[in-house]
Amino acid sequence: MFLLVNVVRHDDAYTWAAKRLYTTNSATRALEVRNVVAIEQLTPALEKAAAAADSLLFAKYSDTVLRELGIDEQVLRAVRTIIDKAQLKAFETLLPEDQCEVLQYLAEGFGPDEVYRDVVAVRRPVDAGPDPDESLAVAVAIANTTNRITLVTGPEELADILEKPFTAWQVFLHPSQRRVAYRVSYGGPVQITGGPGTGKTVAALHRVKHLLTRSPDTRVLLTTYTNALAGSLRENLSLLLDGDDALLGRVDVTTVNAYAHNVVTHLDGKAPSPMNDREERQLWQRVVKQLGLPWTEQFLAQEYRHVVLAQDLRTPDTYRSALRRGRGRALPSARRDQLWSPVELFESMLHAQKATTHLKVCARAADLLAGSAPTHDHVVVDEAQDLHPAQWRVLRGAVAPGSDDLFITGDPHQRIYDSKVSLGSLGISVAGRTHRLRINYRSTEEILIWSTGILSPVSVDDLGGEGSDSLAGYRSLLHGRRPHVDGYGSEQAEVAALVERVEGWINQGIRPSESGCAPASTCCSTRRTTS
Ligand SMILES: Nc1ncnc2c1ncn2[C@@H]1O[C@H](COP(=O)(O)OP(=O)(O)OP(=O)(O)O)[C@@H](O)[C@H]1O
């Protein structure tokens, strides 16, 4: 059996190999590699520093506990010198992979039992008896290391593997992602936030996998903001589930609007016909013209969207006493009575045209769902930051309140519309079940530092509408050149310089990262940046 371990230049390969030691992990029985020379050289100096430290990161775990999790003698000596998470991080590239992951989990606050269950037991072969015969040990370990080593028996098989789309996120999750995605169960709705590119969508996809595999007939609704995003979610879910049609058949991947449309079509027995944004604007223009009121069509459309539909107000009385948080100047009662007439006219015009709006379809779907059985066992919501309360009511109705009902991911910093939503008031209480992802997998640390410097003075409401959100601790493991800043006298000059720069990169053979951003048409952050 040959194992291809690295591809580097001739001399570098010798240096590399001389420093590496391959061993079998005693707990997972996987093959691991470590930089044995670096660990040996570093440990004595670190031991000295550790002797003077106030506390050590792994002090509360005994040698026996660590050994049971697969930590061997050399790593154990190094582990006893680690003071904090930053030092563990600095060690990461030197340590054997499974042992390193066990340590990361412990450092994140998981208990040894959880680590055994989530990291060791899932990898350890069911029939792992006592240590195998030494002559076979490496071969057995190679066969056991399915998360890092792929066995091929011939060139066709190798070609086949290289052709398949494969990305790291399908197999490797950072402990903070694994912790939220594979937690056995949550007592109610859970919210995952994080800056752009922190793997929220990846966590949502893995959660779907977890929910599907936990029970054989669970049905999951996975929603996102646009049809294009739903398309890429569907593709990635199929990759993650290895194209398993039985599992995929139990997930509906869609937008909230499309789901609401289906509910209404099914339960009302007739497909609604929502207008597009332009038609809606034209209808408000007609309302303003007909009534000759002192408000613009834009103001009325916003008031209708952010107050009337958001709070599901159906009578002038409820509107008179409604809160208008975030809507600017106060409107006294008399003004509100006056404002109700355009609302009524707009709705009667819709009725006359046998038309409706997307949000009204959602409101209708929520009403219908309130009077019928939930359609799914679990709802996973991606790109939650721009959902309207009417859409949240639909999602609330799609699943019965209780354990693992809603798993919500989003980034309030990427809101496109400035709508405030209080999830608690919509029956979606995430209190005590909010988590944040902090590692960006898409951009370099240099780009993040530069861009968060621009964003951080701006205060942003959190996802649940209960406080503000910050990007504290947001970082990247990737490194690159520092961003280059140039100023130009006109927009035209700026665009010309931009085109020249990008063309220069393309001519140098630099290509967009394939594992990086989604295609521009489906990527929220790209859409925001370019706009
Ligand atoms: N554990 C991981 N290992 C390697 N790559 C990862 C990991 N998690 C995420 N990625 C990659 O990082 C990129 C961003 O991930 P993802 O789209 O899930 O982030 P996001 O937080 O949903 O982004 P956005 O805020 O823009 O919606 C993707 O290319 C994804 O494949």
Q: Would you summarize the structure shown here?
A:
The protein has 531 residues and is of the alpha/beta class.
Explain what you see:
It is a single chain. The chain has helices at residues 10-19, 36-52, 63-68, 73-79, 85-91, 97-107, 112-121, 134-144, 155-163, 175-181, 200-214, 227-240, 245-248, 256-268, 277-291, 297-309, 316-320, 333-352, 358-370, 389-398, 445-455, 491-507, 524-530; strands at 20-24, 31-35, 190-194, 220-224, 251-255, 378-381, 406-410, 434-437, 439-440, 460-461, 468-469, 475-476. With 531 residues, it is an alpha/beta fold. The protein has three domains: 10-144, no CATH class; 178-269 and 373-476, Rossmann fold, CATH 3.40.50; 277-355. The strands form four sheets. It has a six-stranded parallel β-sheet with strand order 5-4-6-7-3-8, with helices on both faces. 32% of the residues are buried. The structure holds adenosine-5'-triphosphate. Adenosine-5'-triphosphate (ATP) binds next to helix 11 and helix 23.
